[in-house]
Amino acid sequence: MTESAGPAVDAITVEVVSQSLAGIVQEMQNSLFCTGYSTIIRESRDASCAILDPAGRVLAQFTVLPLHLGAFPACVEGLLSFYSADELSDGDAYLVNHPYWGGSPHAPDMAILSPIVIGGELFGFSASIAHKSDIGGLVPGSSSGQAREIFHEGLMVPPVRFHHRGEPAREVEIILRANSRTPDLVIGDLRGQVGATALGAERVRDLCAKRGTATVACAAERLYLLTERRLRAAIADWPDGSYAGSAALHSEGQEGGRPVTVRVTVTIAGEAATFDFSGSDDQVSGPYNIRPPLVRAVCSYALKCLVDPDLPSNQGLTLAVEAITRDGSVLSPAMPAPVNTYMPIANVVAEAIFDALGPVLPRARIGESSRGVSGTLSHVLPGEAYPRVQYELPAGAVGARADADGVSASKAHVANGTITPVEILESEFPVELARFELVPDSGGAGRFRGGLAYVREYRMLGEGQYSSRGGDLLTPPAGREGGRPGGGGATVVNPGRAGEHRVSARDGNIRLHAGDVLRREMTGAGGYGDPRTREAERVLDDVRNGYVTPEAASSAYGVVVVHTGHTWELDADATAALRRKEEPA
Fold this sequence. Notes:
By secondary structure, the chain is α+β, with helices and mostly antiparallel strands. It has 3 domains: 11-229, no CATH class; 365-532, no CATH class; 535-581, no CATH class. 30% of the residues lie in helices and 21% in strands. It is built from 13 helices and 22 strands. Helix 1 packs antiparallel against helix 5 and helix 3 packs antiparallel against helix 7 (292-307). The relative contact order is 0.11.
């Protein structure tokens, strides 16, 4: 780790530049969310912004999606393999969404890269990555569980000039429109990205005019090197050794129901941390593969969680990581392996890391989190040429930690994003939300309870279809240290009615008609510790809140509650007797 030559900058200047860059990416993000056309950006917030140096090192990122810390540099690397630095001009914007020729996690994630040129020299890039509602492919939403190659997943765009000196390339927009079921949303969102990156470039030029270009560049480099130093100093305090962990993605929708396992050996040696994933399973035929830049980003996420969640999101988080993947594995697939459902396997990578480090690091001790039940609704409206694609980010729950309950109805680990509000869905799509609530007993029982899943039921007000991306989990999220697994999820058409059908990934597209109900029940998260050591009063609170049923309070926790006619109360004597009776000999 060496610092480049440049003007001397003191700690105060580094901090001023740090906060200035953080403010710039925050302003870019606000611009993007406020100008987004689609609910996937406006409501789910599946987008992030960054400022990078000329080599693609991240100087600052607004972390909505931690995976983009690895995606941004790979996108710049792809761009610079197609264009030389002297071809890049102020006012340009470059577009790329190719997972193999760029860094996009999957094709719907389109990156916009705007060069920042100061005094005739390339200072860096202002960048954004945002999910698109549809870019073609086998199904509405472009993310098909049936995909067997990336060409099934929609239009692939290598790095191309999208705007030149402020003017859009009409030909590129025409091609994008011709390949999307939601052309107005895609172009509108892309224009919002161009605006956000142009804003970022302008703010960086203003900062350089105020502080000096060389000073800003040197301070920004110092910033990410300081982040690296802080990480390495923390790692140096961890016990040296090699620690193995694993986690599996096990769904009936992949590989004939065979579990796909991520295996990692984390080696701590002084201030160095190496994550070796060579033992992970081979790439899969379905869309559950993930590219190495994203694997490195997951490692960075895990380190940030374990060291300091307030660490700046910059290149220093990845400089402290050595990640080893095996070509041809699920974490380093060969083109044209499909990758559209990369997020579940990314979360499995995080679970494997925490499984490895849990025995030696208290902050790594956490039950497995759930990964949602993914799929896309689309609606056919009379007189409209294109379907309305109702793309939501499914959430699940966060696992219990060694000292706290998990988080209910939440994205987990590197997934992030938000749940689309009911009011937005009902105002923009011909659908009625008949049910949206937590699922009792879905959080794995434990001394600390796993987060609860939620269920949504959608009543169709017109014709449409549901496109499944993944099937039911066959192995639910595991508990730790005696904690129990979270509850399993399911997708069901017309539950409790004639023609009830449990959806599997093999179903592909399912036609839906007016009056049909689609139930999507997510999976709960794993618990931590023996459930019978959970404080009885906390179990009582769970029953009163509807998180745990009275039956589960007794069978899982050994706690007896009785209803007094007004509320639930604890039967302390019966609880003590039950827990004594079931203590191991």
